[in-house]
Amino acid sequence: MSRLLVTGAAGMLGRDLTAVLHSRDDLRVTAATRADLDITDPDAVRTAVTGHDLVINTAAWTDVDGAETQEKAATAVNGDAVAHLARACAATGARMIHISTDYVFPGDATEPYPEDAPTCPVNAYGRSKLAGELAVTELLPDTGYIVRTAWLYGRHGPNFVATMLRLAAERDRLDVVNDQHGQPTWSYQLAQQLVALTDAALVGHAAAGIYHGTTQGQTTWYDLARTVFTLRGLDPDRIQPTTSDHYRRPAPRPTYSVLAHDRWTAANLQPLPDWRTGLAEALASTPGS
């Protein structure tokens, strides 16, 4: 029986991931929340990792705008703490799957970013996440897996889809940006994909390195909002397009966050389906559908 440690188990992805893992009788899972494990404490990390075959790190500093003024604190969680986990895995022989982000890219491309595309973050959050990637690559070159995701939404945390549904009950009209492109990704579907990668990693069928954990296809926040309204039987014309200039925020956002998925095929694993498929399933499975 394989023994797994999940960090960040109380987060949106962490909760879905532990739910999927707990459905498996052949896996013994330790689900560690922030209260259970401070990943910035190297001694606590070494103790927690010991005895596990694989660690999935979903813990992260996720306040993108806050990172602009607290970059050191963000990097302590997204960079230094990841190095603690990777170092502990190297010492015990455990494999590691680390969740990263599209924000490591500059977001100025016109075609999907391949896994080996040059990185160049445009904000502090992206720099902090890149530090974590580099730690995994350096410390676990043969047993470390980096899964970049983007535009994540799900039942267990604040996200764009939930915000649109909340605002639908509060406002007659919503202005949503139409100049940022990405791949909306359902956290539960990503959790299932991470378990598939876990299985492949444990038996040596998936090579270490970078994978892109986003859906196929692409859309804008505006079109995503309209699709959410349509699937919920609301009038999509209540959504009006605007530009990012109307929503100035401390951290600049990539305008193009579309990722390619070639590494999954190389590992004999199917990439996630089109974003519309995941969104329809997610809305059908949540209250109010």
End-to-end CA span: 38 Å
What portion of residues belong to β-strands? 15-25%
Overall 3D shape: globular
Count of the domains: 1
Backbone structural class: alpha/beta
**Major beta sheet, strand line-up:** 2-1-3-4-5-10
Give the proportion of residues in helices: 25-40%
Average predicted local confidence, pLDDT: 97
| Total of helices | 9
Query: How would a crystallographer describe the biggest sheet?
Result: 6 strands, parallel
User: What name does CATH use for the topology?
Assistant: Rossmann fold
> What is the CATH class designation?
Alpha Beta
Write down the Rg: 19 Å
Question: What would you say about this model in short?
Answer:
By secondary structure, this protein is an alpha/beta fold.
Helix/strand layout:
Elements: E1 2-7, H1 12-22, E2 27-32, H2 42-49, E3 54-57, H3 71-92, E4 95-101, H4 124-139, E5 144-149, E6 152-153, H5 160-168, E7 174-177, E8 181-182, E9 185-186, H6 187-202, E10 209-212, E11 219-220, H7 221-231, E12 239-242, H8 262-266, H9 275-284
Helix pairs in contact: 1-6, 2-3, 3-4, 5-7
Question: Can you tell me about this structure?
Answer:
This protein has 289 residues and is α/β, with parallel strands linked by helices. The chain has one domain (2-159, 183-217, 258-273): 3-Layer(aba) Sandwich (Rossmann fold), CATH 3.40.50. 37% of the residues lie in helices and 17% in strands. The protein has helices spanning 12-22, 42-49, 71-92, 124-139, 160-168, 187-202, 221-231, 262-266, 275-284, and strands at residues 2-7, 27-32, 54-57, 95-101, 144-149, 152-153, 174-177, 181-182, 185-186, 209-212, 219-220, 239-242. α3 (71-92) packs parallel to α4 and α5 packs across α7 (221-231). The protein is globular. The termini are far apart. The mean pLDDT is 97.
